[in-house]
Amino acid sequence: MSKTIRVIPRLDIKGPNVVKGIHLEGLRVMGKPVDFAKYYYETGADELMFMDVVASLYERNSLHDIISETARQIFIPLTVGGGLRTLEDIKMVLRAGADKVCINTAAIKDPNIISEAALRFGSSTIVVAIEAVKQSNGQYLAYTDNGREHTGVEVLEWAKRVNQLGAGEIVITSVDREGTGDGFDIDLVKRISEMVSIPVIAHGGAGSKEHVYDVIHRANCDAVSVASMLHYDYLMKHDTSAASQSEGNVEFLKSKRAFHNFKTATLGDLKNYLIEKGISCRPPHE
User: Fold this and answer.
1) Are 192 and 220 in contact (CB under 8 A)?
2) How confident is the model at residue 15 (pLDDT cuts 50, 70, 90)?
3) Predicted local distance difference test score (pLDDT) of residue 199
4) Active-site residue numbers?
């Protein structure tokens, strides 16, 4: 495989904290976003993805201060999503320090925002998130609002249209696999990778280094977005007691209990493993 694969830690954010759920629900507090971002930057992240996971409920993105603080300390591309409804919203997030924006709900409600945003800010700036839920008949339907809202939109056709409208990338999330550590939905990622000409980022299900290798090797994606596997490794090695106690479930954080389905790893562990397996990616810093 000649293309260089990117490894992108994803930070889901609610209020002042990084949170993590299962199937995008049941959010558990992890710690402060800037601490995670700085650590991942220092250990070899190619990019970072910040998602305001409740923004769509309140129709606003509240990450501006976090983005500004993070952008002063890290020097890799930062993608920001959640609650971005208009071109003005996109402009404000980019002005705060984001390099790319990630849209989902707004794009499904008005697909023209993809082409309008690509024209105004550049195609490479516009990432479209697709949250896919597999139906009993094998079909995939797109959801919005962090996997809560059913749209009736068929995922594969939607991916093709997103490509045609000028998006720079697609991040495909299997809601069924997200947060489980059971591995990626390789069939879903492969089908989308084969039908679009823009980069595809696989997200949802990474529980081990082997899972990450499998989706790259078998589904031909261009990047992998990983959260739980890296976050849980970070939690076991760092004091995160400075996390705000006011948002979400902090009991999980206090317990530091075993993370059942996850073979946790650092970014360095993961990247070195991929390189050993013949995957081209930027070597870690550590």
Assistant:
1) no
2) confident
3) 98
4) 12, 131
For the residues 11-17, what does the mean pLDDT come to?
A: 87
Tally helices (H) and strands (E) across the chain: 12, 12
Cβ atoms 226, 8 nearer than 8 A:
yes
Give the residue with greater pLDDT, 188 vs 73: 188
Pairing of strands 149-154, 100-103: unpaired
Residue 237 CB contacts under 8 Å (≥ 6 apart), including other chains: none
Alpha-carbon dihedral sign for residues 89, 94, 98, 103: positive
What's the rounded Cα separation, in Å, for the pair 104 and 110? 10
248 and 53 in contact (C-beta within 8 Å)? no
C-beta separation of 10 from 178 below 8 A: no
For 6-276, which CATH class?
alpha beta
Domain extents in the chain: 6-276
Tell me which of 58 and 214 has the higher pLDDT: 214
Q: Which one-letter amino acid corresponds to residue 95?
A: R
- Mean pLDDT of all residues in 159-177: 96
CB 227 within 8 A of CB 9: yes
Largest CA distance in the chain: 48
